[in-house]
Amino acid sequence: MAEITPGRAYGFFTDTSVCIGCKACEVACKEWNQLPGNAPAFGDGYDNTGALDAQNWRHVQFLDQVPDRTENSGRGKAWLMMSDVCKHCKDASCLEVCPTDAIIRTEFDTVYIQPDVCNGCRDCVAACPYDVIEMDEHTGVAQKCTLCYDRLQGGMQPACAQACPTDSIQFGPLDELRAAARRRVGDLHDQGVPEARLYGEDDAVYGGLNAFFLLMAEPEAYKLPNEKNAVLPSRNNAGGYLAAFGTAVLAVLGGLLAFRKRRDPEPEPEGGEEG
Amino acid sequence: MTLAQEVQHFVRAPDWTWYILVYFFFAGLSGGSYVLATLLRLRGEPADEPAARLGYYAAFAALPVCPVMLVLDLGRPLRFWHMMWNTTPGDGGPVLKYWSPMSLGAWGLLAFGVFATVSFADTLVRDGHLTFLRRILAPLTGAVFTAAGSVLGLFVAGYTGVLLSVSNQPVWSDSWALGGLFLASATAGSAALLHVLLRLRPAARASRGKLTVAERLFAPLELALIVVFLLTLIPAGAVGTAFGMPWTLLWLLALAGIAPGLGGLLTSRLAVTGEGVTVPVAQASAVRALVWPLLTLAGVLALRAAVLFPVQ
């Protein structure tokens, strides 16, 4: 691993085509970050983590597409595994709405929640389009992947990338990762795997993701919004305030009309008053 | 329509529940009451002054609940002041992000609190209490002051809807009408609140007719925004989420709350007859004087619950 220098953009390239679903990333993450984890949930598949949350900053998704009967080889698509993580978006929804400025962009170009600044308002939870952030019930602050901010400061790569036995998780300078990803997807296409695609490698979603992916199916299969749906919370500011302003004008006009000075009420004709 | 063209939400709900529901309710009533009080004083006759003062009292009474609920809802309540002061080491200072409604709202609520408190003190003075404050307050509290406070009151009543929309949550972020919807419902609810409070201040009952007419005008405004809200959800395919069972019941309660106003508008239009100014409140039927306004207030609460809970 080359030296990690502040001021340079770093990230993850998660290549799901070589993920074997071992969850070493989850374990390494919990060990390093001292996350106690949740009680495991045993469901229908191999996923007993469930989702990214305050306790799980890496989550291996298992996409079970195994057909009921064996009709063909599956071509490596029957089981899709993907080690999900905070995307460290260039245009980050969480950072945009955070009212305390607890969420910052670090000197490594990663998105970091300062635990001593966050007050647990959960606006970032409502904003994150990837279901990454959760408020921890013990600490009372929002938590997510830090891209091992502390390890980077010490010149070490993130724990998950170091633990990954297949190099599905690669850590490095963003420009180098992007070049490697483009080579990799080109190789896969050449090998007859047309479904391989990159997500977040260019600026199509949230201005580019520092943690981007090579996927083996469309993004929405992995619960990732597609380019059209990757939108920022602030898009609704103008429309929301405009509608409120229009309503306020109408309400004030209504009040002015209702409260206007009236002439003394004319005496009602005898028996002519409605009930 | 293929999957890729649909509106997609892969988000976690922020768990803004009961504390926030109560906050939305009282923020709407506080801001709305302040606005109505100002309009009554500005536009009404001298006989409407007691009702205007009642409005400023109501605005102040509804206010303290708001910050308490907001603080209790935080994961770290004692850090509530981080909303206004950035404590990042080496980068500390006041923090205001106009593009984040929660940040703007924290300051807006604080500013409105100042105006509502000063207007409350001013109202006390006008009512003959704490008269030693007169010299301090008199130069402050003219029409310009209450007009500025009313702008903040309208903001406090409406920004909460914008806050929900400025997210990536289903329903909330699929519509741009929530700020207007909350604002319209807040004005209707505030008119109903003042209507109920008339019982406590006999001198204010002269304004009963005017408040009744106001309810008749705010009701169609709220109805229109409910319709707009529903229409904006259609392209996102979110109508079922927001209006399906059991939330239908809450929407029906919200509609029931504006039914008296709509009914009054249809039958009497803007005329103040029958139980308006010409009939003393003591003779008015209990239904019109109490039950209907309370139903309107229940509708204000139901409407906010029907927006908050379906996606959480």
Automatic annotation (TrEMBL), chain A:
Pfam families cross-referenced by the UniProt entry: Fer4_11, Fer4_4
Record's subcellular location: Cell envelope
Cofactor: [4Fe-4S] cluster
Keywords for the protein's UniProt record, in alphabetical order: 4Fe-4S, Electron transport, Iron, Iron-sulfur, Membrane, Metal-binding, Repeat, Transmembrane, Transmembrane helix, Transport
Transmembrane segments: 238-259
Gene3D superfamilies associated with the record: 3.30.70.20
Main location (coarse class): other
Entry annotated with the keyword Nucleus: no
UniProt name for this protein: Formate dehydrogenase, nitrate-inducible, iron-sulfur subunit
Gene name tied to this protein: fdnH
From TrEMBL, chain B:
Membrane-crossing residue ranges in chain numbering: 20-42, 54-75, 104-125, 137-164, 176-198, 219-243, 249-268, 289-309
InterPro entries the UniProt entry points to: Electron_transfer_protein, NrfD-like
An annotated GO cellular component: plasma membrane
The entry's keywords: Cell membrane, Membrane, Transmembrane, Transmembrane helix
Cellular localization per UniProt: Cell membrane
Tree of life domain: Bacteria
Topology of the protein relative to the lipid bilayer: Multi-pass membrane protein
Family that this chain belongs to: Belongs to the NrfD family.
Name of the protein this chain belongs to: Polysulfide reductase
Species per Swiss-Prot/TrEMBL record: Streptomyces smaragdinus
Lineage: Bacteria, Bacillati, Actinomycetota, Actinomycetes, Kitasatosporales
